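To the team - magnesium ion complex, inputs and output below.
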Amino acid sequence: MSKTADKPQVLLEHHLKALKLPTILAEYEKVARESAADGIDHPRYLLRLAELELIERERRLVDRRIRAAKFPAVKSLDTFDFLAIPALNKMLVLELARSEYVIRHDNIIALGNSGTGKTHVALALGLAACQKGFSVFFTSAATLVNRLMEARDGRHLSRLQAQLAGVKLLIIDELGYVPLSPTGAELLFEVFSQRYERASTIITSNLPFEEWTSVLGSERLTGALLDRLTHHVHILEMNGDSYRLKHARGSRRKATKVASDAPEADEVVDPDTGEIAPA
Ligand code: ADP
Ligand code: MG
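Output:
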């Protein structure tokens, strides 16, 4: 091909870059060949390219939201075994995975003992919200409170508070493992106040509501916080056998069987970590 014949391509590619249409840039030649072979007219050719660009753009946006959410792991409901936790209302979880509660600014609280899949479900709902187009941020309660205290000491508390208030879905994992200082509890309370009826929050906790005072330190604060949090709330009851534990036991039992036919020794389970130790 001569230089002059190449010129429109060079210009086109330049313009596509300037217009930030990377998928059309990458695909237009291939789709042109396919369209010619299939006898597809120009509007349909353009339509195909525009669709490809849109699909790719949405995929990149979802990826970006997932990265911004800072999930410790990406988990979905596809890998969640509902049979392992009969206390959990499966229909409710599937309904929540549609993310419509985010539009209504409802909250979700998952309560239950350690290892029953609370974090897994919270991560899965977070992922679903990212896929539906909502901004999400995942943090543990302890990390969040530490960050709030640091921000306050560094005089950028209002910036952090504004960031947290702007997220469509804030997931606060593991409220209850660490008791909070009075200042920490106040700062956490402010986060809820600023989100109240404006944006959704998911909380997971190993403690029933009656025991939240032991974490937040004050009955007045706990009452005010629960008041806001539970105004529009979906409660996920997740008490049951620890999944982690059952699976650790399963593999241990298999290992024991292979090693010898001796009966299994009694095991003691650490209620906090779910670790198994021989009695
Ligand atoms: P919790 O937050 O309630 O302590 P996790 O969500 O951290 O429990 O669960 C512990 C581990 O077991 C995780 O790796 C999680 O993915 C897995 N798990 C828990 N419950 C289930 C389940 N019902 N189906 C599949 N995996 C599960
Ligand atoms: Mg957890």
